[in-house]
Write the structure tokens for this entry.
Amino acid sequence: MTILKLQGKRRVGIFRTVRMRIFLTMGLVFTLFCLLFSQYLFRAWRNAWLEDKQQEVSRYCSLIASEAAFMQYEGSSPDQYIRTELENLSRMFSYLRILVLDKNGKVQHDSSQSRYGVYIINDEVLEALAGSTAYGSDDAVYRMAVPIKEYGSDKVNGVIYAFAGLEQLERLIDVSRTRIMLVEFGGWIVTMIVMYFLSKFLARPVTKILDWLRALRQGQETKAPKLFMMDEYSEMVETVEETSNHLRAIDSSRSQFVSNVSHELKTPLSAIKVLTESLLLQDSVPEEVYKEFLGDINNEIDRMNNIVNDLLTLVRLEEGGSALNLKMLCINDMVDVINRRLQTVAEARGITLMTDYPERVEAEADEIKLTLAVSNLIHNAIKYNRENGTVTTSVTTEGAMCRIMVKDTGYGIEKEHFERLFDRFYRVDKARDRETGGSGLGLSIVRQIVNLHGGDVSVESVIGEGSTFTIRIPLDPVTEAEVDE
Amino acid sequence: MMKKWLALLMAAALLVSVFSLSGCSSSGKAPEENSQTEGKTEKAEDALTLYFTNAEGTKLIAAPRVMNWLNAAEDIDKLEILLAAMKDPPAYMNDQERLYSIVPGDLVDHIELGPDDLYASGMEHGKNADQDKVGSKILKVYLTDSYETMDLNRWVLFRTGLTQTVFELGMVDYVEFLTEDTQTQSHLVVDTVSDTAEMILNQYGGSIYSDEVRVMLYFMNESGTKLVKEERMITLNMTENMTRAVLEALIDGPREEGHLPTIPEGTKIKDILMQNGTYYVDLSPEFQLNHEGSEQLEMLTIYSIVNSLSQLGGTGYVQFFIDGQQVDYYKSYVRLDQYFTKDLSLVEE
């Protein structure tokens, strides 16, 4: 059940998706902006509009005043032409009320036709009577008093007193406001729709990556998504891809390893099986044959034993649990001891073990492990040498490193094998190799040990002339480490 | 610190008192209304509102003053005292503005109080005699030559301020301003102010553009034979137009019992134009469609509108449009392609 649950798609709440969050955040910010800005904009517009209207009123009043002057208004009921003009004006501007006062401040004309004969005396009228235009306003009206002057002189003959009702103006504004609001709302909706798709676009990398990871989890081979102009996301994908490849490589090397181990163990087992069965199935077998067969079986068991031992060694090394037991030792002496131990094996194949010590080298190392590594190399050099060949081991220093080179005069190794030479169970020549009885783990162990010492191992080879394996380990690993830090 | 507060407090008190005083003064001539009947001569004092102005002569500023009549034997003496007081503004009305007299030094030659015999008879005064003024008390203000060169605003200040205070005192019904014709040695009346003239003083907003108007509307009697009058008060606010208001009142219908509406239901005003004194009334098609017909009813509907509008000034001519178009016949009898003018023969006596 748990596995199924893990495998299935996790339910993601709609408001918890990246896309929704982007959309909602953008939407909220934009809406707030709209609300604040539209308020500000509307007010600015309203003020500008009112100012404009006031100017309009002023313009038309001045126009009427100058027309009245031209028509020689002398302070009685205004000329029919002017009256019609005023009538039209107050019809044109529904918010406008215009009075014409005579030189005593008496109303001679009223666009609403009601205030005839009333005297209006206040400082605005008086200022106009004194010859200059007066303005005034309160919460409800904007007022303006324009003098009607005698044509071509400063003599005042009357006053145009105009009122612009702000309430009436506001009514006009309300109409425009509704329109503005509609336009604004339309704009808002369009922007929100654009944002919705934009959020989809912005969240797409996440969805893509998620889909890709889901596929990866289910073990499908899927290509990493290509992300355009998204450096962080691309890096994320690359990192995940690398990690996944690495894990996959480890995984495949594990299974390779298991299959190799099984394979390696199976070969001697089947040999033992065949030998045993042939003995069992024959009724009268001479004693020599028994002995020969049992000897072969014994060999196979030895081989299995070798393999298991090597495996154990390798696993212990790989676990890293085996800490190095470092002490100062003379590498030259160590190589001599190994050569002496392998002397009999070498002699069996007529191979001469030689050393080349240009100097005496002492290094801080784990004696047992390094001995294992070097003897593996020399043993290999003997094994894969030609008859009557030589194995030369040289020990030198190279800066702060100790270099141990094991050179044989064997067949050589083709370059294509170099890379995998140190892998477990890797064999250059599979058929021939088994005859020599190797476990296929020797070079792996070498590499593991050298790596533990903080060094490296490399190989050079010329086909037909022989190969050279070189181990480099630091003379003083502690100081090296310190220097590193 | 205390001193500062005290000074502030005093300033506030001063301000309040100034406001309350000016508030009282602007309330006009009401308080002394009945004192004139109870024998004004016995009163030793009168609280009056005098008017002054600013340096530029662009404001009419009211200042209350208690007038002392101790040295006034006759009514004319009171007016002389009043005129003298008007020439003598209080030093400072408030912190901001110095007050100036509205009476230029050499403007008034002398004053006289009517009625004289000529007015009493109402005949021999020639062209200046005015029937309305017969039996009225008149203050005659004789002006010097400087009237001719006076600034208009100064003149309006003088004329308004003087008459307001004089009418408040309640002695005269008219104030006449006269100048001397140097050639004929006679006096000419250049201006007359009546105490019945409506005056809006130092007010700006609503009192000017909000108005209650008495209008006469014409509706139909119950038998549908004649038009009947109905008086109505109409409130006009700001830009509301009187013509439109009257027409709307007609469409709304009568309020008095026994009166019937004349305008068909559903009629709407499309527009009202006034061109050269003629009203052009544009109504919606319902005005035509929803009418019952018959010559009498058609006439009554048309003339209820024409008669109602004719009282509003202009030439009294009315032309009808239906939906912006001129039509030949209203229903089937009355031609609509003509100018209508008031016809009172249709009105019930």
About this structure: The helical segments of chain B are 2-26, 75-86, 117-121, 152-169, 206-209, 242-252, 286-289, 295-310. The radius of gyration of chain B is 28 Å. The interface with chain A takes residues 56-60, 151-153, 155-157, 159-160, 191, 197-206, 208-209, 211, 213, 236, 238-243, 273-277, 312-313 of chain B (CB under 8 Å). The first helix of chain B runs from residue 2 to 26.
